[in-house]
Amino acid sequence: MCMQHQPSACCKCLPRLIIGGEVCDAAPVLHAFTSDWSVIEQITHPDVRDGTSLLIWPNRAMSRARLVAVFVLVALASASVAGFSWMQGNVFAPAFAALELSAFAVCLWLVWQAGKRAEVLAISQLSVVLRALPDLHDRFLANPRWTELRFNEGRLTLVSHGKSVEVGAHLGEAERASLAKILRERLGEAASGRTAA
Description:
Layout: H1 7-10, E1 17-19, E2 22-24, E3 29-32, E4 40-45, E5 48-56, H2 64-87, H3 93-114, E6 118-123, E7 128-133, E8 137-142, E9 148-152, E10 155-160, E11 163-166, H4 173-191
Antiparallel strand pairs: 1-2, 3-4, 4-5, 5-6, 6-7, 7-8, 9-10, 10-11
């Protein structure tokens, strides 16, 4: 199931991805940097050898099935209380319960949709490109030799020629530290003319 914190499977659902600074239509091959529950993955593609791309997912702890299960449990509890209140003479209790559950469902849906947004950071010898998924909107474009990585007070930013953009804002502090280490290595390789293995 797409987007259940399984980027390798979900990535096939994305129509276009940035690979090594290019937009590729083919499904990429993913290699996780950490565990199977990784939120930071490297994208490689057989047709693009110069450079690498990082796919950065939001840290989602729940699958869709678990989210539905939470909603069902809350709905049962709310319906029980509303039913008891209605039997006690509160005729408005079911209506308020339905309104409350509707608002709760909308909130869960918004959180789930926000979890689908990710970042693709393509690093090659010619460019550093940060794009947001799923709309592939450019957030940053610079030469790797003139790109500085800053990691201050838990914020990870790319800076070049007066432009700056935060990377991995949706990650936890430990995950941002891991991402900073990976980015330093990749930027160093790109700036020196080497590519990731």
